[in-house]
Amino acid sequence: MRVPVTRVSLDDSPSGPNEPVTLYRTAGPGSDPTTGLPPLRAEWIAGRGDVETYPGRDRDLYDDGRAAVRRGGASEEWAGARREPLRAREGRTVTQMYYARQGVVTPEMRFVALREGCDVELVRSEVAAGRAIIPVNVNHPESEPMIIGRAFHVKVNANIGNSAVTSSIREEVAKLEWATRWGADTVMDLSTGDDIHTTREWILRNSPVPIGTVPIYQALEKVGGDHQALTWEVFRDTVVEQCEQGVDYMTIHAGVLLRHVPLTADRVTGIVSRGGSIIAGWCLGHHRENFLYEHFDELCEIFARYDVAFSLGDGLRPGSLADANDAAQFAELDTLAELTRRAWEYDVQVMVEGPGHVPFHLVRENVERQQELCDGAPFYTLGPLVTDIAPGYDHITSAIGATEIARYGTAMLCYVTPKEHLGLPDRDDVKTGVITYKIAAHAADVAKGHPGARDRDDALSKARFEFRWRDQFALSLDPATAEAFHDETLPAEPAKTAHFCSMCGPKFCSMRISQDIRDAYGDAGEQERIARDGMAAKSEEFVRLGGTVYLPDPTVPAR
Amino acid sequence: MRVPVTRVSLDDSPSGPNEPVTLYRTAGPGSDPTTGLPPLRAEWIAGRGDVETYPGRDRDLYDDGRAAVRRGGASEEWAGARREPLRAREGRTVTQMYYARQGVVTPEMRFVALREGCDVELVRSEVAAGRAIIPVNVNHPESEPMIIGRAFHVKVNANIGNSAVTSSIREEVAKLEWATRWGADTVMDLSTGDDIHTTREWILRNSPVPIGTVPIYQALEKVGGDHQALTWEVFRDTVVEQCEQGVDYMTIHAGVLLRHVPLTADRVTGIVSRGGSIIAGWCLGHHRENFLYEHFDELCEIFARYDVAFSLGDGLRPGSLADANDAAQFAELDTLAELTRRAWEYDVQVMVEGPGHVPFHLVRENVERQQELCDGAPFYTLGPLVTDIAPGYDHITSAIGATEIARYGTAMLCYVTPKEHLGLPDRDDVKTGVITYKIAAHAADVAKGHPGARDRDDALSKARFEFRWRDQFALSLDPATAEAFHDETLPAEPAKTAHFCSMCGPKFCSMRISQDIRDAYGDAGEQERIARDGMAAKSEEFVRLGGTVYLPDPTVPAR
Q1: Given A389, A404, A506, which is nearest B475 (Cβ)?
Q2: Which of A163, A186, A553, B362 is the most buried (most CB within 10 A)?
Q3: Residues of chain B contacting residue A558, judged by C-beta atoms under 8 Å apart
Q4: Does B140 show up as a binding residue in the annotation?
């Protein structure tokens, strides 16, 4: 079995050669977007003998919105291969959790263990216990399996998707490729406007990472945007449509109960989750319980036939510091814990979504409470932002909270881009968001003491100390930007190997002086060690004697 | 007494008018850079009757480097007013710490208390105890007093300064203005190249905030860049030169002792502080103790005559995660604690510098250890960066560590710009660095529960919830960027008051739905409260009865 990695070859150090550094890689094999990726997992899925093909739902132009009905199709139809959908044979369950609980090690688990550099039994046992998920819809064979759980590397999700106001199908596919190139571990397609079905088809066929969605957005489109007109039937139809396309996990706001909604009335920012507010509006408009909660078992039965994972939505997450950790938020979390256990009865994989906007000192409570209540089900949080005063910089305000929450056990972080609260992210924003979150995830891995997490830091720092600029760039999260910044002040090619940089200039470089010190007194070999220890003894003696000698006849060559 | 503030007037809410929000302001009164700022504090200083004017050091063209000697002056001479320097009369001490310990409340303390919105006795007692400093050289009367201490708002320092490779005097003055405009509380001039004296003169005469320096950089210039040629005499002369100009605090690497240096030999990145490596190189080259340590009492005597504060440099701070919290770093900290107490014997104000590069889980130990060892002297840290793998994004890697370290008591954060490790910051980098650090400082204030810290968050969140876009921009750390991002997708003027934004589009806005819910069931007035409680009772009863009713005849208007 082969897994994707990026291998970085390094130049030699003065002390000898450096081992190449192997980095986790999410970018996939690459392909022409109009034909899609090869179905890596097709044989694994078929090989288990527990799925069947079936005709699937009929094409319905309404799936792409009213504009598609008018023009007789999406604005750009998917022209690549169309496979008949798969589902579990009647009475079978095809989830990784089911297999894991049966003691079966799947190729997906082996793939994941190789990527993570861990024992496959850790993967199987964590999935079996519900503490990790491998989101792999049988209808998304293009994806390279990955795992979300606190025992593994912290993961990053990037949101893309068009809206009623802006953007095209091709742009969204380009954002997908861009996000995975910079390290997004999963991507959520949050499209809400026209072409919603076809955009998703393009994305799934081209995605090497799991794709998540929020099906209520499309269900709402189907009822003309009137949330009071939503029904379980429309929602169920939408979920099946997306299961057949291959969506790997879906955000389901089943925890927004009728009795929770009044708890939000005195909040500074009410309900800020789109899904949450749609459901809350529906509940109150109908004076009825949330139909997602009422039909949760039916959802479990559907998800079990495709291996779709729940991402239990936190529809009542706080939208401002003032609303953090309040009664509404924690009441919903109690319900999400109940739903987690219910899904596990069906062997359906579950993660639980978390906030949002939370003051820094209250962040930790969120993950510890979720982990306790939900028996260790993976936590998947949006930031959280630790202040509300920096629109335009919320990738930063949220990366601070994200590092803290991941340190204490959050398994996946949903990125926030600089455009949060202000507009739709463009290509640059997607990149900035992903890299910012790779920083948070990695810093948390290091803080958790995850095995090998610090190797990349150490390799880069060593390269920095030795002025191996090329290696320093190559080991960076964003080599192009690092190199461009360096070149702004020192563009010449020789400066790439120069033993100084523009901060201090050639005369003044602390790294160089430091290297001189090491050359003179430090470093490995026995001779140097003796010299150094002798030095230390001498200096200690010097201090003990209280000597105050200094240069008796200072030479000031420059003046 | 009047103190500078920014007052933000807000539009009315549906529920009534909003009080204006008052923000701390660092930008100063503004002026023509060629004439400088008015000497706000001149009368206060003179009024105490404990200073004298004197001719000061002679102009020496070498102060500006060899190029100035060649051309007969700096590249652009300071043409504004030149005052004779002040110093304490013989036998007097003119530090704010001295006054505070005598029980004297100075105008500087009153000014600070007004800015902080706290009792002046808190200011006096914290300064007297050494837990806070007010850096105010008697020769920098242009500055608006501010305080650095854990009982007050967390402060942010911005570094500027030319280097041997690049930049001009005017550019540095423009960076100063730019940095304080975005909220820098102090600015350090780290110039190392030509025009070093004159650049500092321009900066001081135009700075409304305290200016810090690292005098060894200039001392090294004076000896032609050869650190082995440094002497106490050259260093002392440089310190006096800078005291006379008005530098408010100076980084002094007196904690780099000869016996500490060998502790760095096995580090991944050795000594990364420029000052630290210069001193370490000198110590080893001469086999002598650090002359700054040896002459520390003399420095205290000098500083006491001008009220210059020590910023005790952490010359052995870690330059990589691998070197964090190691023997070298903590050995130096022990020495800095000893020096803190020695300075206090002279009533000289002190803060202590801290790292650097530190894994997230080891950050807290740094500040707690420093606070304990140094009896609460203000801690002033550079980040720390919580990972080494993101050159080009180190404003972010370090803001994460900065928030954590400030939460536990660091009083001032030295910013890091995106160019860290790669090049000299330009104007945009300075802005990005300052704003990123305002985020960290503010998030820490909120986390510490600093009185009133969250008011700005709450006001902005309320504006956001009510679609008062103009107010949201005005309350932001960077109004122009917030507005520009908003306008990218919704540029029309009416969109500034539109009850939706481009993320969701008009049909789909969770804020709007949420407002509808509040209008129907929530919010202030008694009537609504009754309605809501009734609603809650009804929904609870509904759940208790286990009702599963949902829409019997769904209407799907769109299809």
Answers
A1: A389
A2: A186
A3: 62, 66, 221-226, 229
A4: no
SS (H, E, C) A124-163: HHHHHHCCEECCCCCCCCCCCCCCEECCCCCEEEEEECCC
Is the pLDDT reported for residue B527 higher than 90? no
Cβ–Cβ gap B514/A547 under 8 Å: no
pLDDT at B546 > cutoff 60: no
How far from A464 is each of A436, A467, A475, B429, CA to CA, in Å?
21, 5, 10, 21
Length of chain B: 559
Q: Which of A454, A434, A424 is nearest to A192 (CA)?
A: A424
Average pLDDT over residues B463-477: 94
Q: Which residues of chain B neighbour A322 with C-beta distances below 8 Å?
A: 454, 457-458, 461
Other Cβ atoms closer than 10 A to B15: 11
- Token couple for A115: 């990527």
CA distances from B190 to A317, B133, B158, B211, B358 (A): 45, 21, 10, 10, 23
Nearest chain B residue to A222 by CA distance is: B558
For residue B14, count CB atoms less than 10 angstroms from its CB and return exposed for 0-12, middle for 13-18, buried for 19 or more: exposed
Asked if A557 and B514 come within 8 Å (Cβ–Cβ), the reply is no
CB contact under 8 A, A407 and B361: yes
Collect all residues with Cβ–Cβ distance below 8 Å to B404 and sequence separation of at least 6.
A404, B360, B363, B364, B386
In 3D space, the residue among A163, A160, A157, A178 whose CA is nearest the CA of residue A28 turns out to be: A178
Mean pLDDT of chain A: 89
C-alpha span between B495 and B505 (Å, rounded):
11
DSSP 8-class letter at A12: P
Residues near B112 by Cβ (< 8 Å), separated by ≥ 6?
B120, B123, B134, B145, B146, B147
Please list every residue in chain B whose beta carbon sits closer than 8 Å to the beta carbon of residue A391: 460, 472-473, 476, 482, 485
Instruction: Report DSSP letters for B420-458, one per residue.
Output: TTTS---HHHHHHHHHHHHHHHHHHHHHHT-TTTTHHHH
SS3 B516: helix
Cα–Cα distance for residue pair B380/B351, rounded to 1 Å? 7
The answer to whether A504 is a known ligand-binding residue is yes
Mutation site, A503, A532, A559, interface B, largest B CB count within 10 A: A503
Look-up of token digits 């990366």 = A399
Q: Which residue has the higher pLDDT, A65 or B369?
A: B369
- Chain A, window 180-199: residues with a beta carbon less than 8 angstroms from a chain B beta carbon: 192-193
Strands A5-8 and A51-53: unpaired
Work out the mean pLDDT of chain B and round it to a whole number: 89
* Range among A66-75, A375-384, B217-226, B520-529 rated most confident: A375-384
Determine, for residues A288 and B551 on separate chains, whether the beta-carbon distance falls below 8 Å.
yes
The reported pLDDT for the residue numbered B166 is 56
Contacts of B505 in chain A (CB under 8 A): 163-165, 192-193
Residue A162 has what pLDDT?
A: 77
Of A510, A532, A559, the CB nearest to B222: A559
Q: Do A270 and B506 touch (CB under 8 A)?
A: no
A504 at B interface, C-beta within 8 A: yes
What ipTM does the predicted assembly reach? Answer: 0.91
**How high is the pLDDT of residue A514?**
66
